[in-house]
Write a structure and sequence with these properties.
The chain is an all-alpha fold and 158 residues long. It is built from 5 helices and 2 strands. The protein has one domain. It is found in: Nucleus.
Length: 158
């Protein structure tokens, strides 16, 4: 050894980055690398838009591990198909949602203004909602929005 200690090894246990922080840093680096390699003119953070984010999410879709049936598949809407089908593997909605959440936090930690955060743009939220809806239909699962309970739960006694 050359006598140097890595930064992570020199920090006390409580100061080591959490699993979430490590994943957030990895996701941020992956996104920045994607932007630099696919959009060389749009390297700077202030010019990112929701279209850059949506393009990145669609790019990641090809590396997914969740079977999502096409509408033409005979097993579309069947929760547990009896045999395998040729439908593609895609990113699960929950994974995309968590990724966007981490990137949204990383954007602000890296100097981006919260009010101009492209990861929180309406187009990104609509995209995620549509992915969830389609994946639920594809697997025959219904996602019903839960109704909020009004009041504090106590009934007035007279």
């Amino acid at each position: 050894m050359d006598g140097t200690i890595s930064q992570a090894a020199s920090l006390p246990w409580s100061e080591a980055p959490s699993r979430y922080e490590k994943q957030k840093r990895r996701d941020w680096n992956t996104f920045c690398h994607y932007i630099r390699s696919h959009k060389p003119t749009d390297v700077h953070q202030p010019v990112w838009t929701s279209s850059h984010i949506l393009e990145f999410l669609r790019y990641l879709d090809q590396f997914g591990k969740t079977k999502i049936h096409n509408q033409t598949c005979p097993y579309f809407g069947v929760p547990k198909p009896p045999v395998p089908c040729p439908c593609p593997l895609r990113q699960a909605w929950g994974s995309l949602d968590a990724l966007v959440g981490r990137l949204r936090a990383a954007y602000e930690e890296n100097g981006g203004a919260p009010e101009s955060n492209p990861f929180g743009a309406r187009a990104v939220r609509v995209f995620l909602r549509e992915v969830r809806r389609f994946q639920a239909k594809s697997r025959g699962i219904t996602y019903d929005k839960k109704k909020r309970k009004r009041g504090c739960g106590f009934q007035k006694v007279m």
